[in-house]
């Protein structure tokens, strides 16, 4: 199964991968509470970490 996954990931270019990530992010934003205050602490922490990691990526687009 890992061979199949490797083949699939190699077939995605950077632009396609970024588009998929953005679409997933948009869907998550629609399904999560807008303020994040009602999220469990562990999930709020993970979301903050994702935001920090996305900031450097935005500079390269």
Characterization of the model:
The protein has 61 residues and is mostly helical. It has one domain. It is 75% helix and 0% strand. The protein is built from 3 helices and no strands. The chain has helices at residues 2-11, 14-31, 41-58.
Structural class: mainly alpha
Calculate the mean pLDDT score and round it: 77
* Count of individual beta strands: 0
Number of helices, counting only DSSP H or I runs of 4 residues or more: 3
Radius of gyration: 15 Å
Q: How large a portion of the residues is in β-strands, by DSSP E?
A: under 5%
One letter per element, helices H and strands E, the order comes to HHH
Q: Kindly, what is the distance between the CA atoms of the first and last residues, rounded to a whole number of angstroms? A: 32 Å
Share of helix among residues? over 70%
Identify low-pLDDT runs: none
Largest sheet: none
Tertiary shape: elongated
Q: How many structural units, i.e. domains?
A: 1
For this structure, the quaternary state is single chain
In short:
This protein has 61 residues and is mostly helical.
SSE map:
Blueprint lengths: L1 H10 L2 H18 L9 H18 L3
From the structure above, extract its key features.
single chain; mainly alpha; elongated; 61 residues
